[in-house]
Design goal:
The protein has helices at 7-18, 59-68, 89-94, 104-111, 124-136, 151-164, 178-188, 230-234, 260-269, 271-276, 384-390, 404-412, 422-441, 458-463; strands at 49-54, 73-79, 100-101, 117-120, 140-143, 168-170, 195-202, 284-291, 301-308, 317-323, 360-365, 369-372, 380-382, 445-448, 453-454. The chain is of the alpha/beta class. It has a domain at 22-175 and 408-434 and 471-477: NAD(P)-binding Rossmann-like Domain (Rossmann fold, 3-Layer(aba) Sandwich). It has a nine-stranded mixed β-sheet with strand order 13-12-11-7-10-9-8-14-15.
Length: 479
């Protein structure tokens, strides 16, 4: 270690180096090798959208059912790296005659001409290659949040959405529910204005293992289940030996595979404020508190500060993010009861459990304070006396013409526009990647919003792109 190199910086370098072991190149399909298949046109107003599904267990299964239940989709292909896992069986039983694949490249190779759109309900690190290949073939994409794992991957996905002119929707489903339309209407009516601070909090348990936060290496490898295609599961990420704590939701704990609690829940809590307050990228992100900081997986608790500049006539805003069971933010006088929204869908480990403070946000403006939950939960003005005073001044809020899944399929048919298109969801997801980088490095980041570069930390700026993809997976970054 050089005299100027801190133990933290060296530790991170070692962690990144452990992730950088290459393996033999994967076998490329004809599609991945550059032989394109015919693109598909929009399904007509009377036709169902032919949908291929990547990720068919846990959250992926919920996405498939939600899209299918609209009555607007035919399920034409099922793809999962583990077709024998218990969590995939219900979808396989529901669609017994649908062709099955373990590798999305083979699926596109053999069935590309029969596919209009693709759902992507897989771990964060695998969103990018599936989505980029789909869009390059003219397929519409529904991608679970967050859009991708790195800042640069999200940037490329936003550009591809425009280049290939496809419908692209990120799966923060509250963006098609009551909160979306209420927030929009209240901003347009001047009820929400001059916002200066937002407290965003997720204080339910989101850690799946109780490992010591002082670990200095990845866990020892275990035998790969016979039904799992581990090589395809790893995708663009450098080689890791298989371990049960890398899969089935637990991938979200690890920096190499996911974006932690912030990427998981930020898209359901910060989304409408980010869009309708025109926040874009922050100019500064700082870790305020990191309990159990570790360069391999996420802290037990985090408090992060995101500072956004003045935008037109809107004043600067600071968003403070809290996660961790005991990392509870202070609430203002008159806050009232913290309700748990019954519409919040189950997590990969079961129904979300009530916490000391349930998932949500507090929005502070110069004149009013608002309390809100997660997903589609609507805002209320607090304290109650102020809400009563404002009741007659509130605008009528239109009802949603379609839930998030129907909205996507209608967009595939040219009848609606995706409400959480990559153009909208991309900058939001990039905010999460910046927050995760501040967590991982345990340092303040200063960002040039115009050039999209980090100006005060060379290593952090390199992490916007991240490690080169694993050998055999480079082509998705060139589509």
């Amino acid at each position: 270690m050089s005299p100027k190199e801190s133990p933290r910086r060296l530790f991170l370098k070692q962690a990144l180096a452990l992730s950088a072991v290459t393996v033999a190149p994967t076998i490329l399909t004809k599609v991945a090798s550059g032989i394109t298949l015919p693109t598909t046109s929009l399904a007509s107003a009377n036709e169902r959208v032919n949908l291929a599904c990547c990720g068919i267990g846990n959250r992926g299964a919920e996405i498939i059912n939600a899209l299918y239940n609209t009555g607007l989709a035919n399920i034409v292909a099922l793809c999962d790296t583990d077709m024998g896992a218990p969590h995939t069986l219900k979808i396989l039983e529901k669609f017994p005659d649908v062709p099955r694949f373990q590798d999305f490249r083979e699926m596109f190779d053999k069935m590309g001409s029969q596919i209009d759109a693709v759902s992507v309900g897989v771990p964060d690190h695998s969103h990018f290659p599936i989505t980029m290949l789909a869009m390059s073939l003219g397929k519409h994409v529904y991608v679970e949040k967050p859009m991708a794992r790195t800042f640069n991957e999200i940037e490329l996905m936003m550009k591809a959405e425009k280049k290939y002119k496809v419908a692209a929707q990120m799966g923060n489903q509250g963006h098609s529910d009551a909160n979306y339309f209420q927030f929009k209407a209240w901003v347009e009516a001047g009820i929400i204005k001059d916002v200066t601070a937002i407290t965003a909090h997720m204080n339910s348990a989101r850690r799946w293992h109780g490992w010591d936060t002082g670990i200095t290496r990845f866990p020892d490898g275990q035998p790969v289940p016979g039904t799992l295609d581990w090589d395809t599961w790893l995708g663009v990420v450098h080689h890791h030996d298989y371990h049960k704590d890398f899969i089935n939701g637990q991938w979200r704990c690890w920096y190499d595979f996911g974006l932690g609690a912030l990427g998981d829940w930020g898209a359901h809590i910060i989304d409408t404020a980010h869009e309708f307050l025109n926040l874009g990228l922050p100019y500064e992100v700082s870790p305020v508190k990191l309990e159990g900081h570790n360069p391999f997986f996420f802290p037990q608790s985090s408090t992060l500060s995101f500072k956004f500049p003045k935008r037109g006539k809107m004043p600067p805003v600071e968003i403070t993010w809290y996660d961790g069971v005991n990392n509870i933010p202070q609430v203002p006088e008159g806050y009232g009861v913290s309700e748990l929204d019954p519409n919040i869908p189950p997590t990969s480990t079961g129904k979300i459990q009530p916490a000391k403070l349930n998932p949500g946000k507090i929005i502070y403006s110069k004149e009013l304070t608002f309390k809100g939950g997660s997903h589609g939960s609507t805002l209320s003005i607090i304290p109650e006396e102020k809400a009563k005073e404002m009741a007659g001044k509130l605008p009528e809020v239109p009802k949603s013409p379609s839930n998030h899944f129907k909205n996507f399929l209608q967009a595939c048919k040219g009848l609606e526009k995706c409400r959480s298109s990559f153009e909208v969801a991309g900058p939001l997801s990039q905010v999460f990647t910046l927050g995760v980088m501040a967590q991982r490095l345990n340092t303040k980041l200063e960002i040039n919003r115009k050039t999209k570069q980090i100006t005060n930390n060379k290593m952090a700026n390199e992490m916007l792109v991240g490690l080169p993809p694993r050998k055999g997976w480079e082509q998705y970054y060139k589509l």
